[in-house]
Amino acid sequence: MSAATIEGLTGRLAPSPTGVLHLGNARSFLLAWLSIRSRGGRLLMRIEDIDGPRLKAGATESALEDLAWLGLDHDGEVMLQSGRLEQYDTAVDRLLAAGLAYPCVCSRKEVEEAASAPHETWQDAVPYPGTCRGRYADCAEAEAESGRVPAVRLRVDVASLPFIDGFRGPEDGLIRGDFVIRKRDGGPAYQLAVVVDDAATGVTEVLRGDDLLVSTPRQLLLYQLLDLPAPDIVHVPLVVGEDGLRLAKRHGDTSLAHFRSEGVEAEQVLGYLGWSCGLRQDCEPCGAADLLEGFELAALPRDPAVAGPPWFEPR
Q: What single DSSP character describes residue 270?
């Protein structure tokens, strides 16, 4: 039974202040907003500001301004992950105490060298070889013997955790070995933090871009091991450039902040996004609320949305 059948429908928008929001982000956030608002649900706002080295000054304020500009409102106060470190530590300590996690002193370079070939992203990496499994009794011993502050890895004893995606359908749920849940700097890993937060706030639906599909089986495993109700998971296609690659600087400035500074109106962006989602026959300007009536996620095209310049002309 999914969490959505137990509690009221609750979704969330969760921007990470590591950069500016662009068209691709806006499309995913719009779909998450429409999915919840079209059914009268509650929508929360969470800022995922725990990736210290990658955080950009002013990015939180910019993201909230961009979403408000688009008319994507939320309920309640904004949650900052940086204010919930104690809750993440409690979850990690619980897993350690149960023998479901262990300290790991391997450096990133050592993990990469254990692979037979280099990998461009962590999604493509080979499973962690288990070097530190059973090596140390606890984190204190790991640090004392190695001279390194350890990270904490979840012990993964299954190869996969199949699940049904709310848009894509059945997924094999491949899990790529033991993964980090607390980093060496003491901060929580993304996988753990989102699980703890979504459960704590009663989130029953997570709709996000399919670049995060690989995270889902890891998170579902954490829900199980922490005895928490898992939300329904929905992954939607990304926006890509005319070269078929996800939006980046090479495609020009596609940030919402840039469009705003150029005099583009939110309704122009929403009209375009609504059209790209199969919700409108044309790109005529509209408001977010105009896309609510008759909204069906099934109308969304299965392929990535292809976008290219010219983007918008100021009205």
A: H
Name which of 109, 44, 39, 110 is nearest 72 in CA terms.
44
Contact between 184 and 156 (Cβ < 8 Å): no
Q: Are 288 and 277 in contact (CB under 8 A)?
A: no
3-state secondary structure labels for all residues of 161-216? CCEEECCCEEECCECCCCEEEECCCCCECHHHHHHHHHHHCCCCEEEEEHHHHHHH
Query: What's the angle, vertex CA 97, arms to CA 203 and CA 83, rounded to 5?
Result: 40
The 10s digit of each residue's pLDDT in 218-255 is 999 999 999 999 999 999 999 988 888 887 777 778 99
**Range list of H helices, 114-153:** 139-146
Give the residue among 51, 129, 137, 127 at the shortest CA–CA distance from 99. Answer: 137
- Whole-angstrom Cα distance, residue 10 to residue 197? 13
Assigned CATH topology for domain 3-82+237-306: Rossmann fold (3.40.50)
**b/e for 77-93, b at 16 or more Cβ within 10 A?**
eebebeebeeebeebbe
Dump strand ranges (E) for the chain.
10-13, 42-47, 79-80, 101-104, 151-154, 163-165, 169-171, 179-182, 205-209, 232-236, 239-240, 305-306
Instruction: Kindly list the catalytic residues.
Output: 249
Half-sphere exposure of 21 (CA within 13 A, CB side): 29
pLDDT at 70: 98
Could you tell me where in the chain the CATH 3.90.800.10 domains are found?
85-192
Q: Give the DSSP letter of residue 124.
A: G
Name the pairing type of β-strands 42-47 and 10-13: parallel
- Kindly report whether the global pTM for this prediction surpasses the value 0.70: yes
The candidate with the shortest Cα–Cα distance to 65, out of 312, 208, 255, 257, is: 257
Decide if domain 85-192 falls under CATH 3.40.50.20. no
The span from the CA of 23 to the CA of 211, in Å, is: 15
